[in-house]
Design a protein that fits this description.
The structure is a single chain. With about 290 residues, this protein is mainly alpha-helical. It has two domains: about 5-210, Alpha-lytic protease prodomain-like (Up-down Bundle), CATH 1.20.1510; about 215-290, Cation efflux protein, cytoplasmic domain (Alpha-Beta Plaits, 2-Layer Sandwich). Helices cover about 70% and strands about 10% of the residues. It has helices at about 5-35, 40-65, 80-110, 120-145, 150-175, 180-210, 215-225, 260-275; strands at about 235-240, 245-255, 280-290. A three-stranded mixed sheet has the order 1-2-3. Helix 8 links the parallel strand 2 and strand 3. Helix 3 (about 80-110) runs antiparallel to helix 6. The longest helix has about 35 residues, at about 5-35. The radius of gyration is 24 Å and the shape is elongated. About 40% of the residues are buried.
């Protein structure tokens, strides 16, 4: 499916900008309540949200520049900006984990477990969960619509916040029931949740930056070419991902008695068949004669 570039840019920029505003609100509210209650769980969430704010700003910049068309200096366009922004977000997530684990261990060793759980503690955590659900859904919807890795990474950040906020909520409830280590234990759970997301996001980002072919794409190309009977066989498929775009190159064989114009038309049929199955595909086809024909 193709989308108007201007329409896609506006929608992606709007949802990215909205996420920045949401991250500002969440960071501020968690920081204030965390300092007032001395809750490590909420303070760790505040740092997590602050790094999400940085990530959201990076995403907003990335989607704005990644849609720029190809030029003389960037023959494949600017889509790698999205991949790079996702890498930065992964690094920020890992930094979050290191800080959370360090603080949790420090409190365990020092036995400084006193926090003040108030109604505001519950309000900020539950409110955060509601906002995170709303933002993650909006981001993921637009990310899937336009195949945007930067927006998908931002959606994963907000999804991570949902789970980590739930864990912090459990920690607050545990503290109310005099289980004083619950807050620090919740903070460690937050760190492991974030580490899991960091690994998945980082691996995918690294694969795209080093031009690893996406799994399953070759099979889709083969399936598409089955609908072009004039193609006798194909080989040397090469795929690289740049942001939402997949650049595909391949060789096809056609009957050797065909004219140049007929062979050229078949190459267009092959391109169209691939594009119909793979979104945002930019296909280059090299035609060769089938010598045994």
């Amino acid at each position: 499916m193709t989308h108007n570039r201007s329409e896609a840019g506006k929608e992606k920029n709007f949802v990215a900008g909205s996420s920045v505003l949401a991250a500002i609100f969440l960071t501020g509210s968690k920081l204030v309540i965390g300092l007032l209650t001395n809750s490590l769980g909420i303070l760790s969430e505040a740092l997590h949200s602050f790094l999400d704010l940085i990530a959201a700003v990076i995403t907003m910049v990335a989607v704005r520049f990644s849609d720029k068309p190809a030029d003389d200096d960037h023959n494949y366009g600017h889509g790698k900006i999205e991949n790079f922004s996702a890498l930065v977000e992964t690094i920020l997530l890992v930094i979050t984990c290191v800080w959370i684990i360090y603080e949790a261990v420090a409190r365990f060793l020092s036995n400084q477990m006193h926090i003040e759980v108030t109604v505001w503690s519950y309000i900020v955590v539950i409110g955060s969960i509601i906002i995170d659900i709303s933002r993650s859904r909006a981001l993921m919807r637009v990310a899937k619509k336009y195949d945007s890795q930067a927006l998908e990474a931002d959606a994963l950040h907000f999804q991570t916040d949902i789970w980590s906020s739930l864990v912090v909520l459990i920690g607050l409830i545990g503290y109310d029931f005099k289980y004083f280590y619950a807050d620090s234990i919740a903070a460690v759970f937050v760190a492991f949740i974030v580490l899991g997301v960091s690994y998945r996001l980082g691996k995918r980002t690294f694969d795209d930056l080093v031009d690893k072919a996406p799994r399953g794409l070759t099979a889709k190309i083969a399936e598409a070419l089955k609908n072009v009977p004039e193609v006798t066989r194909f080989h040397d498929i090469r795929v690289r991902v740049s942001g939402p775009n997949k650049f595909i190159e391949l060789n096809i064989h056609v009957g050797r008695m065909l004219s140049i114009e007929e062979a050229h038309n078949i190459s267009h049929l092959a391109e169209s068949a691939i594009v119909s199955l793979i979104s945002n595909a930019k296909v280059t086809v090299h035609v060769e004669p089938e010598l045994g024909d």
